[in-house]
């Protein structure tokens, strides 16, 4: 009996596209029967959901991870089926090793991104903000907006820094868009807010990137201004 996996909290359009891409990347079922295909698809979808992607980029990365893992298993199966054809067996095992390394590398990247986002979000918890002295800032600063649960809402700049910590760090270090620009830039109006952003999210980001970013001369000049 096949069940529906618990889905990550993503927009329906992203979920549909991720599942379509995932099923398109899977190797043929073995044996090629309706039951085997259903089992293959179910296993892949549950593996994808278990990676818990938090945005469109992570959803695509999770597709690559699960797809690479599925092809690694298929290559191992073909290696075993090669029998006395040792050259074919070695070729299949080498391909399986490559697919496994790709899956493992993608998993490490996904885990780093998720850990950075979780750390930034935890910095917004009341106790963490109080320890950081957030409640003792100038009372003329308006209190942050809160959601239905009473938690502080992220600004657009904070949201970008949580989703794309590496990009935000480079923007802050450069005092604007870095050159050369090798990623899709945020909206132009958002760039200065990322550069000049303060508060727990940006404090956590600056601590994460360490001296290599916080000590950057351009960033220091921008903050000083």
Q: Report the average pLDDT across residues.
A: 81
Question: What are the low-pLDDT stretches, counting only 5+ consecutive residues below 50?
Answer: 136-142, 211-225
DSSP strand content:
under 5%
Q: State the helix count.
A: 11
What is the 3D shape? Answer: elongated
Based on the model shown, name its key terms.
mainly alpha, 11 helices, 65% helix
How would you describe what is shown here?
By secondary structure, this protein is mostly helical. Helix content is 65%, strand content 0%. It contains 11 helices and no strands. The termini are far apart. The model is unreliable at 136-142 and 211-225 (pLDDT under 50).
List the helices and strands and how they pair.
Blueprint: H1 12-25, H2 34-50, H3 56-81, H4 86-122, H5 126-131, H6 156-163, H7 165-174, H8 191-196, H9 200-209, H10 211-214, H11 217-224
Short précis:
Helix content is 65%, strand content 0%. It is built from eleven helices and no strands. The chain is mostly helical and 225 residues long.
